[in-house]
């Protein structure tokens, strides 16, 4: 199993990614920015209704570990509220901006932190095949793949990557599903 994750959206490229995921009966997790949701509220609803998971990526991409306790809570809580307003769902996972996390931030948020272990560097590489290959050469069972649904090239890469991952035998699941399976496997190992 593999979890595709998309940060920094929603954007004009998100819907195309949702369509590709649906076409292949796959799901992903989207770590969204609170301040973008009003403009894409139909997308956030579609995202949720298609069975994808929504996570919190702050309100407007401030560097969270550099903020005061009050500011950190505001960044997270405002985003929780706006996601809930449109979907009725409150995220349980957050991805810290810039992957930056410390004790204080962990303490100030009531959400589980989710980082990644495969970086497609889609923000940096303009070539679709490079993005796809960055994922394919590093992926393994249980991988969490980082992408950004704010680039057209990413939505193009997803069209190639999703069927290739399926071809390799991977199932594309949400973070919650991935964690659930890991928990079951750990329990089985303990019993053996
Ligand atoms: Zn980000």
* Total strand segments: 7
Low-confidence stretches: none
- Order of secondary-structure elements: EHEHEHEHEEHEHH
Query: Given the structure, what is the number of helices?
Result: 7
Q: Give the overall average pLDDT.
A: 97
In this entry the ligands are: zinc ion
Helix percent band: 40-55%
Structural class, please? alpha/beta
**Rough shape?**
globular
Q: What does the radius of gyration come to?
A: 16 Å
User: How is the biggest beta sheet arranged?
Assistant: 5 strands, parallel
- Strands of the widest sheet, in order across it, are 3-2-1-7-6
Q: Give the termini separation.
A: 22 Å
Share of residues in strands = 5-15%
Can you walk through the features of this model?
By secondary structure, the chain is of the alpha/beta class. 46% of the residues lie in helices and 12% in strands. The protein contains seven helices and seven strands, in the order βαβαβαβαββαβαα. It has a five-stranded parallel sheet with strand order 3-2-1-7-6. A two-stranded parallel ribbon has the order 4-5. Strand 4, helix 4 and strand 5 form a beta-alpha-beta unit. The longest helix is centred in the middle third of the chain and has 19 residues, at 69-87. The model has no long low-confidence stretch (mean pLDDT 97). The structure holds zinc ion.
